[in-house]
DNA sequence: AACTGTGAACTTCTTCACAGCC
DNA sequence: GGCTGTGAAGAAGTTCACAGTT
């Protein structure tokens, strides 16, 4: 049992590894067997040197003068990211966004599957989405326990997100992806990752206006 | 016309300013008139010193010993982010995710409004979502031109995202938010911001497993 | 000849510590 | 006393350049 690498991969690298995994899967499906860092970087939208540095964190398996074996590299990244075994997730809040997430094929192919969908509205409960039936909120804890789900996705309105977070963590969920536009507090040992679609749009718009008006006055 | 500040705000700061804006609006709605950096930072999930540094980029308007005026600070951030005037966006791909985005109230309250929804499926065209009627793809360029939309949101399947991107940029769109799991290439002067929901989940899951198994072997 | 792997320089971001002001 | 604004220190991430390998 040797320790092959100092087991710390920078978070920025992890995010890009997920992108490389997607690109490599696409390349493999297209029949490609080898790929160079330049091609892969271009397809992933990153710098080639940065890509090689990213891969070096997992004790890289490229061949100098040739490139990377597509399938071997994909397997290696999938193993590091833990995308080999599919992980159980529960989703709370089956509004428009929640329904979209429940039905999103991308999760299934990337190592995640939903084992429970929950909504507070009686009108939603009983509906079938993506092969699952929406359950009432009363069943949340029991389902989390029974399925041993470790990941929770919150797509509820902002005003109930914190109490949903409390119930999820209370039931044993250790990681939460939060789409509600509110900052959640969770016990130590629980990761909360916020995804705010409005923030993405605002950053995009700001960069655009900064480019368009490089030296404009802001004082009224 | 003096130049009050070197007009370069770090991108990381811009993203947080959008969060502060959200929190300040919530505070103002709750009747709060002043707030300290500590409180605001806690509500936004960031470090207080970092928040003050962020605000210093816009020639801060806090009062030492007291804090920040909630309404004044909100106005100031909104002006810098350009969130005062509402910007026209078009949305292409009205599947589950697209429909969710079209109906998402969060955009309207943050300085964005959709002026066009487009889908390739005849079954979708003519449907009404969030006050707009879904148009056919043939009408894309004409609508972008007529409305002078500068922001495009792509929520199509991956295999058509690039050609949608080409058409949007060809019609004059300068900023693109891309939800399709594919890397887009766009002409110089056009910003593309990818949002990959699977990547977010994968990063979250990795951090969780890294915490759970700090020194596990990866070699098979 | 081609391409990987990586130390080193560089840039960006974060955190600290404290002076300055109310 | 309490809180802001900011220079300085530190950490993290990115890019470069080139040695090393096939």
From TrEMBL, chains A, B:
Q: Which residues form the CoA-binding domain?
A: 82-183
Q: Which SMART domains match?
A: CoA_binding (SM00881)
Task: Give the UniProt record's GO annotations in the biological process aspect.
Answer: negative regulation of DNA-templated transcription; response to redox state
List the InterPro entries. Answer: CoA-bd, NAD(P)-bd_dom_sf, Rex_actinobacterial-type, Rex_DNA-bd_C_dom, Tscrpt_rep_Rex, WH-like_DNA-bd_sf, WH_DNA-bd_sf
Give UniProt keywords alphabetically. Answer: Cytoplasm, DNA-binding, NAD, Repressor, Transcription, Transcription regulation
Q: Where in the cell is it found?
A: Cytoplasm
How is this protein annotated for GO cellular component? cytoplasm
| Positions bound to NAD(+) | 93-98
In its UniProt record, a GO molecular function of this protein is: DNA-binding transcription factor activity
Q: Which residues bind DNA?
A: 19-58
| Protein origin, superkingdom | Bacteria
Q: Give the family per the record.
A: Belongs to the transcriptional regulatory Rex family.
Which HAMAP family does the entry mention?
A: Rex
Q: Which NCBIfam families did the record assign? A: PRK05472.2-1, PRK05472.2-2, PRK05472.2-3, PRK05472.2-4, PRK05472.2-5
Q: State how it assembles.
A: Homodimer.
What this chain does, per the entry, is described as:
Modulates transcription in response to changes in cellular NADH/NAD(+) redox state.
UniProt protein name: Redox-sensing transcriptional repressor Rex
Q: Which organism is it from?
A: Blastococcus saxobsidens
